[in-house]
């Protein structure tokens, strides 16, 4: 083992000494100033950076098969890309430019990460207080038929995802679908497709509904209330394929269940505090001119105080319930202490670190000059409308987060209508394929064998009709914004 490590170190040192020979500094010798980055698009460093990013993203796209968490390859790629950039700029005596650029990217990531961390903490808190389990049990008890359940899960996904993230919403609705219709593969397949489309569409008209809309809002490109003009286009995106798929749903009634799930103490308070946190974040940004993440972190303080209160009063509540009822275990089972730091620990850290890798990778490629080339091709040669429609199609193959971050880094000169268009297409474009959004990938695992890539692909033409119908609706209703 020791010998193997020595050999590894030897080769590593050899490679480090070979770097200057492989990439001579003369390749990068060009006119530059302390205020202008080097154009490295046509250099070995630039080509290698593209290759490393593409390899990393190939691993991200095949996560379901390799079982390699998506954060690992992009974090490694980000480190390699910026190390090569740092080497070049050090040789040119321009290290301060590279340092300033990466600090800018880190600040953007920090705002996004802390905002999402608070939102995830609240969602995890609601899950821990069995809010979503209670909703699921309520739906199952109703004994709805497959067709009515198809509409209910779709509409609930559409209206829950603007507040909660589309992944949590899709998983909740899929749990209902699997609980009542597991034996009917056709219903499960169509209902899962419907939920994916609805969750992605619902997230497109709210700054809190999707990472892409959140990034656009935090960049201060659009105001909070401006996103809501996308409500009808998003609704069209959901309803058009849903109406077509509805006629393929079997007209059957599964057996109802009598199970009841009682929410734990403090569940309603957490829901109320989450709404207050959203209001705080919006107020900090709109009224005080401060970053919305500061409002979100203030909202985390609300939850921490609630957690302290629940912890301090737990024993007292249990004793009170024992005095009031002989069925002690049945009545005070929901009196459980709440620890906010446990919910913080349960956040999707793989997702948060994935965002870090994406932001740094795309930021590095932009710093090298590739995003300027892409912007020239898409927004100057194709035109903003065709470029923004293409962003949605690309989002069906590549995750919409790096695509939207790339657009935001390009900063094309567009009207509010065009920024809303790219927000819409990036949000709903992932529905075209099951691998195009986190909701689709998660449901393939939850409804394994019944909701698959191929089963979703069969309905892609129908989803595409909704995609282009939503674009046409936006361009018609909001024509004054273009």
How would you sum up this structure, described in words?
This protein has a domain at 265-337. α17 (370-382) packs across α18. It is globular and about 75 Å long. The chain has 482 residues and is mainly alpha-helical. The protein has helices at 2-22, 44-61, 63-66, 71-91, 95-128, 131-141, 146-160, 166-181, 185-202, 211-218, 231-246, 267-286, 292-324, 328-331, 340-345, 349-368, 370-382, 384-395, 400-410, 416-428, 438-446, 453-457, 460-477. Helix content is 72%, strand content 0%.
State the total count of DSSP E strands: 0
Discrete helix count: 23
**Helix-strand string:** HHHHHHHHHHHHHHHHHHHHHHH
Radius of gyration computed on alpha carbons: 25 Å
User: What does the main sheet amount to?
Assistant: none
Helix content: over 70%
Q: Which structural class do you get from the secondary structure elements?
A: mainly alpha
Q: How big a fraction of the residues is strand?
A: under 5%
**How many angstroms separate the termini?**
64 Å
